[in-house]
Predict the structure.
Amino acid sequence: MRNLTSTRTNSRCIGTSMWPFIRDSTIVRLSTDTQQLHVGDIVQIRKSKAAILHRIIRKRGVHYLLKGDGESTVDGWYDQKSIPGVLVGIYTKHAYIDACKISFRRMNAFAAGISRMTIGKPWLISSLQFICSIQLLRNVAKFIVSQ
């Protein structure tokens, strides 16, 4: 469980490096409590003076290998001190998703495994994004039919 006394802030994401998990213009909630990071956690780093959210795909002690889900290359290894924030929630159009819940953490660990498989394989990322798009269209169609 994350420290409830840590500083929490909301940020609007810009870009597609974490698509389809985090879409452009999604509002996320970040915490400064980075003491217990796990494979699968989405963390904030600074890269070329920009704040970036990417996923931890491997861990070695207090060093973490980061990668965007929508990218085929890794960011490299970062130590815990260079990670100022961790994702604790996502605001959607309909609800707030608590990223600290165990079901969300399990899904993140699974997503880290998928992200590791796509290193150096941009064609695989495109295929997975296409599959996610089809599923999204199916969900929209089901919603429209149910109205």
In short: The beta strands are 8-12, 27-31, 42-47, 50-60, 63-67, 74-79, 85-91, 96-98. The mean pLDDT is 84. The first helix runs from residue 102 to 117.
